[in-house]
């Protein structure tokens, strides 16, 4: 998208606002598909948790994507967006057996990541196909909060528990049709990913009726010009060769599955915020915007870096600014950034705002969550209205009769 397009969105829909470029999403989907064109059966399941607006889900469905879900609510959103049940995989963590049974009743692919639920589900529903999530004990990811395949992770069934897992499968006679792993986000070292894949292949040999192997995702996208990223083309060549070899060894053509989220939508997203105050202190120039970590928490939560551009003054002299929000505690988007000179009222654009941005927004400080806009074929479409005060009160119950108004004390004269 051009800066002029983004400024038009800010003018027409107000700021703060999230904007998503459908053309970039489609481009990323096609890039990943082409990287694995040597695989006979490839399935890309979009990770709904990255950006779950129903219009985005419909876009993914139109591209031929499947859907990766982590909650029963995401499953229902996917069905409402037009995904067929068999195109949805449900991969929760730490949920109740009842929720898993509810998802199974909707006909989606179940993915179980702990022995307790596996045994309970297999005992009650041995005929329902189940995928098993393995923890390969491989550390990968750009931050400890998003590395989910290491030995201390809560996710997956440890490879050291395979004998126990096999005993459960044998006793329950359950149908295991898939094996899955997810090492974490921001994967850079392809060899580490391939090493984890070998563990998955070795595990898969224990099951004779598999239909697919799911390698998770976590491909790193660039957050600024010149930033390092996952070379999906190189990974595609190497993993395709190894996967096809395994299928020959296994004696059956399996489906290779991924569940990309950030890779598909991160670079397609822009967050626009208006500058309220430019504040000079003894050591820092602050640009305070009409937003905060209630709208974009990743910098404070993960130390994530989002490039910040002044689209109102793209040719202005560069100065150093610390861009901060209006939340009543430390609320920093970026410290000492070189940005074209900022004036109060300017619109700042935060790039890479498509993944884990709006979906993690909140009403902290009783602030409204922003609008969402889809930029599709050079036209802006509102896909979520900005919240208002009624939304803040929605579902609250004001029990007025519990408390009476305190009377003022009258002092004697």
UniProtKB/TrEMBL annotation:
Pathway: Amino-acid biosynthesis; L-lysine biosynthesis via DAP pathway; L-lysine from DL-2,6-diaminopimelate: step 1/1. Pfam families: Orn_Arg_deC_N (PF02784), Orn_DAP_Arg_deC (PF00278). It comes from Flagellimonas lutaonensis. This is Diaminopimelate decarboxylase. The modification N6-(pyridoxal phosphate)lysine is found at residue 49. Its cofactor is pyridoxal 5'-phosphate. Its EC number is 4.1.1.20. The active site is at residue 328.
């Amino acid at each position: 998208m051009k800066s002029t397009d983004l400024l038009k969105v800010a003018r027409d829909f107000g700021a703060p606002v999230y904007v998503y470029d459908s053309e970039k999403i489609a481009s990323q989907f096609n890039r990943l598909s082409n990287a694995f064109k040597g695989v006979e059966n490839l399935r890309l399941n979009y990770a709904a948790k990255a950006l779950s607006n129903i219009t985005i889900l419909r876009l993914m469905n139109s591209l031929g994507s499947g859907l990766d879900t982590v909650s029963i609510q995401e499953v229902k959103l996917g069905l409402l967006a037009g995904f067929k049940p068999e195109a949805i995989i449900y991969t929760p963590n730490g949920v109740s057996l009842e929720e898993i049974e509810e998802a199974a009743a909707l006909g989606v692919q179940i993915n179980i990541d702990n022995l307790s639920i596996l045994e309970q589900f297999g005992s009650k529903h041995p005929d329902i196909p189940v995928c098993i999530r393995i923890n390969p004990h491989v550390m990968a990811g750009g931050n400890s909060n998003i590395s989910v395949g290491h030995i201390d992770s809560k996710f997956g069934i440890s490879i050291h528990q395979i004998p126990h897992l096999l005993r459960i499968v044998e006793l329950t006679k359950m149908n295991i049709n898939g094996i899955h792993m997810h090492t974490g986000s921001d994967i850079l070292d392809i060899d580490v990913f391939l090493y984890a894949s070998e563990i998955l292949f070795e595990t898969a040999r224990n099951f004779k009726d598999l239909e697919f192997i799911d390698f998770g995702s976590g491909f790193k996208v660039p957050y600024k010009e010149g930033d390092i990223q996952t070379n999906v083309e190189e990974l595609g060549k190497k993993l395709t060769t190894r996967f096809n070899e395994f299928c020959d060894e296994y004696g059956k053509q399996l489906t290779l599955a991924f569940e990309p989220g950030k890779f598909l939508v991160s670079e397609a997203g822009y967050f626009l915020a208006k500058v309220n105050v430019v504040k000079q202190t003894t050591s820092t120039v602050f640009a305070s915007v009409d937003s905060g970590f209630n709208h974009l928490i990743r910098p404070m939560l993960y130390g994530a870096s989002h490039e910040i551009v002044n689209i109102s003054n793209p040719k202005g002299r560069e100065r150093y600014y610390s861009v901060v929000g209006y939340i009543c505690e430390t609320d920093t988007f970026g410290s000492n950034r070189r940005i074209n000179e900022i004036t109060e009222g300017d619109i700042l654009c935060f790039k890479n705002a498509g993944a884990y941005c709006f979906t993690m927004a909140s009403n902290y400080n009783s602030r409204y969550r922003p609008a969402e806009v889809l930029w599709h074929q050079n036209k802006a479409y509102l896909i979520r209205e900005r919240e208002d005060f009624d939304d803040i009160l929605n579902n609250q119950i004001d029990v007025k009769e519990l408390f009476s108004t305190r009377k003022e004390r009258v002092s004697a004269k």
